[in-house]
Specification:
Largest sheet: 5 strands, antiparallel
Low-confidence stretches: none
Number of helices: 5
Structural class: alpha+beta
Shape: globular
Strand content: 15-25%
Mean pLDDT: 91
Radius of gyration: 17 Å
Strand order of the largest sheet: 1-2-3-5-4
Number of strands: 5
Order of helices and strands: HHEEEHEEHH
Length: about 150
C-alpha cells in the first residue's frame, strides 16, 4: 500500500494541493512530513502505527499545553488503516542543532535554559497526565534496544 493510500479520505483532496516533504530529523518513531499549501501556509503531519504507540497521547498533551508553552496547535487528528494522523501548525524557530547557532553557544545555552525554566514553571499538580519515571525510563530503554 502506498503512503497516500493510508491518508484519510477526507484529507486527500486538500493534501493533494500541498507540497509534501519528509522530515527525517528526530527519533520519534513517527513519519513526519512538512506540508506547504498553495497559500504558503506550513503544517506538519505525523503518522504513526497504533501498534507502535500511536499519536493520541501526543495530541492530548499538545491540546493541554496550548497557552502554557509555545507548542504547535492541533489542526486535525484522524485514524485510518491502523495508523493515527496528527496534523499540527508550524511554530517559529530553529532546532538547537541548527548551523546558525554554532557560533553563539552561550546564547544557545541561555535559550535552552529559558525553555527549561518555562517547562519547570508549569504547575505539575494541574497536569492531567500520569507518567512515572520508571515507565519513561523503560520506554527509552526499549527504544534504544530497537536501534
Amino acid at each position: 500500500m502506498h503512503l497516500f493510500d493510508l491518508i484519510p479520505q477526507a484529507w486527500r483532496g486538500w493534501m493533494a494541493r500541498c507540497h509534501m516533504e519528509q522530515n527525517r530529523i528526530g527519533h520519534s518513531g513517527s513519519m513526519v512530513f512538512r506540508l506547504t499549501g498553495p497559500d504558503r501556509h506550513v503544517m506538519y503531519l505525523k503518522i504513526r502505527a497504533i501498534s507502535e504507540g500511536g499519536l493520541l497521547a501526543e495530541k492530548h498533551r499538545l491540546e493541554w499545553l496550548q497557552g502554557l508553552l509555545p507548542v504547535p496547535k492541533v489542526l486535525g487528528f484522524e485514524t485510518n488503516y491502523g495508523y493515527e494522523f496528527l496534523l499540527m501548525s508550524e511554530i517559529r524557530g530553529v532546532p538547537s542543532f541548527h548551523h546558525s547557532l554554532r557560533h553563539d553557544i552561550p546564547g544557545l545555552m541561555g535559550q535552552l535554559a529559558s525553555g527549561l525554566r518555562m517547562i519547570h514553571q508549569l504547575d505539575r499538580d494541574r497536569c492531567p497526565f500520569y507518567a512515572p519515571l520508571h515507565e519513561k525510563l523503560e520506554a527509552v530503554r526499549s527504544r534504544c534496544e530497537k536501534r
